[in-house]
Amino acid sequence: MAEKYFSRRNIDFLLNEVFEVNSLTRFPYYADHNDLTFKMTLDTAQKIADNMMYPVFKEMDRQAPVWEDGKVKVHPAVKEFMKEQGKGGWINVDKPYEVGGQQLPSIIKLMAGLIFSAANYSLSVYTALTMGAANLIFTFGTQEMKDQYLPGMYSGEWQGTMALTEPDVGSSLGDLTTQAEDTGKGYYLIKGKKIFISAGNSDAVDNVIHMMLARIKGAPAGVKGISLFIVPENRYREDGGLEYNDVACGGIEHKMGYRGSPICQLSMGEEGDCRGWLIGEAGKGLAHMFTMMNEERLNVGMGATGKVTAAYYASLEYARQRLQGRRLMEKDPNTRMVPIIEHPDIKRLLLFQRAVAEGSLSLLAQLFMYDELAKFGDEKEKYELLLDFLVPIAKTYPSEMGILTCSAAIQILGGYGYCGDFPVEQYYRDIRIDPIHEGTTGIQGMDMLGRKVVMKQGKAFNLFIEEVSQTIDQALIYDELSGMAKQLQENLERLKVVAGSLLEWAMQGKTEEFMADSVLFLEFIGIIAIAWQWLKQAVVCCDKLKNMPADSNINFYMGKIYTARYFFEYELSKTVSLAVRLTSKYKLTAEMPASCFEE
Amino acid sequence: MAEKYFSRRNIDFLLNEVFEVNSLTRFPYYADHNDLTFKMTLDTAQKIADNMMYPVFKEMDRQAPVWEDGKVKVHPAVKEFMKEQGKGGWINVDKPYEVGGQQLPSIIKLMAGLIFSAANYSLSVYTALTMGAANLIFTFGTQEMKDQYLPGMYSGEWQGTMALTEPDVGSSLGDLTTQAEDTGKGYYLIKGKKIFISAGNSDAVDNVIHMMLARIKGAPAGVKGISLFIVPENRYREDGGLEYNDVACGGIEHKMGYRGSPICQLSMGEEGDCRGWLIGEAGKGLAHMFTMMNEERLNVGMGATGKVTAAYYASLEYARQRLQGRRLMEKDPNTRMVPIIEHPDIKRLLLFQRAVAEGSLSLLAQLFMYDELAKFGDEKEKYELLLDFLVPIAKTYPSEMGILTCSAAIQILGGYGYCGDFPVEQYYRDIRIDPIHEGTTGIQGMDMLGRKVVMKQGKAFNLFIEEVSQTIDQALIYDELSGMAKQLQENLERLKVVAGSLLEWAMQGKTEEFMADSVLFLEFIGIIAIAWQWLKQAVVCCDKLKNMPADSNINFYMGKIYTARYFFEYELSKTVSLAVRLTSKYKLTAEMPASCFEE
To answer: Active-site residue B20, yes or no?
Structure first.
């Protein structure tokens, strides 16, 4: 049996007790579903993870993909996994029955994804990317495109990618140079280079479908000139067979972690015959891509949460087994050593990890519930705004904090944590990609402060505050939670003060000063968002404890409340210092000339 | 020429302008030295680092040591480097002329060590360990021991180690079980196992001298039963030749980073004839070892500072070269992209690294100056106390913050930072060992709060406050620094309040509550200590700027002042939140039962 790397109990708690996923079956789209179908889906996910994914977690790191003669050889488990996922209907699990989907709520897909990424993040990425790419075709493609590409992608025989980054263009997508020339024959000739393309080439699949951003010849500079294309590695011939489409893989990167998945360099049109098919509207490529991008950003948040979770359980297990030292009151060296979980500093390191893992998962679940309400409920705009507003937090909080929590997992294991015999050093290496891919933390900070806070005259910002306030009101009912409720209320006031202080710069037209610390603002509001989720969970636990659950559940609910308290005592308190910095009128980094880094 | 990985300008600034190392030549021990000998020493260190160390920095990571047939094969550069260091007199550089030393101040040794560890930390460790081990023999050994072991160690032909950790004993050293049985023939028979022994076996040297802790048969349990032994891998025969001493290397660990140096498992006495020689007093082994331990802890701080420095310069260089995006005020996509160093968020990430690198080095220099004053000055006790007090900070601050600064270096490089073509991912992996070895951060926190703050009725604590206050007084003279001076003054008050609040628990006998957040207390006081060093540097810079230096120096001094301001705005402000937590009366981690981690 695999070691424990996630908690089904916690998943069930969030689904059934906090977010009441069953309520979604009131929507006709989910009418065929119930507790049992949800449970069976997650049981199956767990089996796949236990049997196919976790057992090759370390091996895929040790045997990283190899590039040979233009082709990338990946671990054999990838092909097996992709096929299994295709066969099991996982890649289109939330799609309508008409396209072979199972019409499952995306929050169930989230929880399955959490299990997969906790088991083996590198492996989980192959299908997650395919899902995102297929969803773009599903959303913006013509019927012909859907017929041509979706079956291969949904069956796991074809890989999907997002191909944005170029050698000179990463964060500044508006400057990309890959060119598309209209041939008048229904397709474009593509010429250019892309780098850092996850799963951009692999011998695990028969074809790779790149969702690629390029600039149509003659299009204006900047983002307005960018269009979205389907650029398959192998294209259809007239006779329905496949032929090579002049998409060459020129190599892969040697990465610190996340080594089970190849990051490819691609070169299109070296032989002058790389064909791409415009999807969606010309010039709206970036906007279209953001359908996939938001999904992939949530996937990054989910993947980071998975790694945080797995590292937490690895270090928890160690802390229970490892004997070292004695309680501080014990002065007799002849007494037996205690498990290190008895030491307060170890409990702190465990609580930190658990608070980030379960707080982040709760926030992600919240977003996916908003997504359902935006799709099927009555207040579409409200829930779309809330979802949009929270994406940068759900992407960044687990990614950035995960660096620290995986570091805490290593610290619990001490020297062993630094060595390959235990899995935690790999989580630490693997998670470092998350603050980079699908938009760096710097980009997320700019998105949060420069777009999300101000969009629709602050409507999303105010909706967020309303949502948090509702939870505060619920918590105030419980004596044991009123202190935390008040602390969160103070933080909402603090948030308004900080945002107001920053917006003054914007109103004076001082954009650099306004945005200089946007990453810190994202950290600040992220802490508040996670505190909100912890208070929400604590309310449920207090309620359950009142109704006296079976003994076995008391530890779970009490553990949750202690973790919530940990978060308020140790993490939420950080907002005080962040507010000091964010309201400072000295915008050092905007003022300092770059020459002062010279000597 | 090697890329830039440290700043000689900054080293010279600290030595000559801040700490006035030249003043040490007033002590007779250093009478032969002057600016020129110091300069020549560092010129030589720089050459060694440029020519022998930095060029194999990556290669030693890729070609990690291999264990075969009981022997560890290390990179061939190790042997060459050890010999060069021996020949150049580096291993006994601060020792008296009588033992072949050069009587150089330890602060010069520090700066050379910084250059070495910035160039190639794994390689630098071999000699640093030998220095520490040799120093133990120099301090506590008999003349015979000195004659037997020091020449081989000083020449770089023999390796020195510290052998403390055992499979079941890491932080809790009092529980170690390696046994020493008195034979009555002048030596003890040693039996036991040690793990995680850095450079514990290697084909780069002819012999390895382990400074080993063991328990003499019949000795009491706990630390009082521990003695220190010299346990050579090969011992002297009667005829003066060497023979194998039954110290077997059973394997090495596969580590995430710091891969150029092997971490060995050792087994003593498998054949019943491993001999150890008692050094110093029986039962005082741990106290003796702490002579070396303090040195090694400062070495860890220095090594971490070296890696932080090298990562900073790698990311600075990239930030200057890499074009991406435009200033936020620029809306025309046809304009040229700017180097990313122009973006405030990148400046923030650079300033963070620089503040930690140069602040930590300044603190280390301060400690080494205290060391000189303790050895040769009139107020021995005062400077010994200050040195002792600050060791946990000097070890931990660069180690823990270095995780974050090396992460910031990666972030500046984005996807490239995650890949092996650039060096920053290696710094990130390499530095993760530093909060673990030579006493984890948890151990340092307990040392700080449980020993250092309270020792001699708070005498060291008060001396520290006096030292900081002196700097504050000097800064108040300058208008541009008075704001920072006041902020630091407030922080001294905050420190007293926090310490007082914690000590209340101690006085009530509630040891676990007192110590529960000792790691956070260490973080808190560490930030204040680094702020002090930045204010001290800023005072010097203000003074220099008043006297109008050559144009080329203005950027250096201005850059220093901006970095000091960065530290006060972004880092020192963190103490507000830490104080909130540290003065909280809710000691969650002491209260929470471990069972609440169950489900």
So the answer is: no
Q: Which two tokens stand for residue A56?
A: 């090759």
Report pLDDT digits (tens) over B232-252: 999 999 999 999 999 999 999
Q: Which of B344, B415, B588 sits opposite A565 (nearest CB)?
A: B588
Are A425 and B590 inside 8 Å of each other by CB? no
Which pLDDT score is estimated for A1? 44
Class of domain B8-153: mainly alpha
B293 near A CB under 8 A? no
CA closest to A355 among chain B residues: B597
User: Which one from B438, B467, B513, B523 is the annotated catalytic residue?
Assistant: B438
Mean pLDDT of B575-593: 97
What is the Cα–Cα distance from A266 to A268, expressed in whole angstroms? 6
Classify A220 as helix, strand or coil: coil
B236, with CB counted inside 10 A (0-12, 13-18, 19+), is middle
Burial B147-172 (b: 16+ CB within 10 A, else e): ebbbebbbbbbbbbbbbbbbeebbbb
Pairing of strands B207-216, B242-244: unpaired
Q: Which residue of A has its CA nearest to B579?
A: A573
**Distance (Å) from the alpha carbon of B583 to chain A's nearest alpha carbon:** 11
**Which residues are bridge partners to B268 per DSSP?**
B192, B247
DSSP B73-105: E--HHHHHHHHHHHHTT-TTTTS-GGGT-----
Contact B592 A329 (CB under 8 A): no
Residue A462's pLDDT band (cuts 50, 70, 90):
very high
What is the distance in angstroms between the Cα of B340 and the nearest Cα belonging to chain A? 10
d(CA A593, CA A496): 31
Evaluate whether B8-153 and B159-282 have a shared fold: no
Q: Which residues of B touch A599 (CB under 8 A)?
A: 7, 9-10, 555-556, 559
CB-based contact (8 Å) between B168 and chain A?
Answer: yes
* Closest C-alpha to A430, from A530, A264, A293, A310: A310
Q: Is A432 on the interface with B (CB under 8 A)?
A: yes
Q: Which of residues 398-417 of A touch B (CB under 8 A)?
A: 403, 407, 410-411, 414-415, 417
Nearest to B6 by CA among A599, A256, A595, A592: A599
Determine the angle formed by the axes of helices A380-413 and B380-413, rounding to 10 degrees.
Answer: 130
Task: Count Cβ atoms within 10 A of the Cβ of residue B376 and give its class: 0-12 exposed, 13-18 middle, 19 or more buried.
Answer: middle
C-alpha triplet B278, B279, B282: angle, nearest 5°: 65
Q: In this predicted model, what pLDDT tens digit does every residue of A405-439 receive, in sequence order?
A: 999 999 999 999 999 999 999 999 999 999 999 99
Going by pLDDT thresholds of 50, 70 and 90, the confidence category of residue A46 is very high
The whole-number pLDDT of residue B331 equals 87
The CATH classification number of B159-282 equals: 2.40.110.10
Residues of chain A contacting B402 with CB distance shorter than 8 Å: none
**Cα–Cα distance list, B588 to A113, A480, B574 (Å):** 33, 14, 21
CB B361 within 8 A of CB B10: yes
Q: State the complex-level ipTM.
A: 0.97
Q: Where are the domains of chain B?
A: 8-153, 159-282, 440-589
Give B92's contacts (C-beta < 8 A, 6+ positions apart): B99, B100, B101, B102, B131, B134, B150, B154
Name which of A170, A333, A598 is nearest B174 (Cβ-Cβ).
A333
A333/chain B closest Cα distance in angstroms: 5
Domain A158-281 has CATH 2.40.110.10: yes
Question: How much is the pLDDT for B106?
Answer: 94
H/E stretch holding B263 reads: strand B263-268
Distance from chain centroid for Cα A118: 12
Q: Which helix (H) or strand (E) holds B213?
A: strand B207-216
Q: Report pTM.
A: 0.98
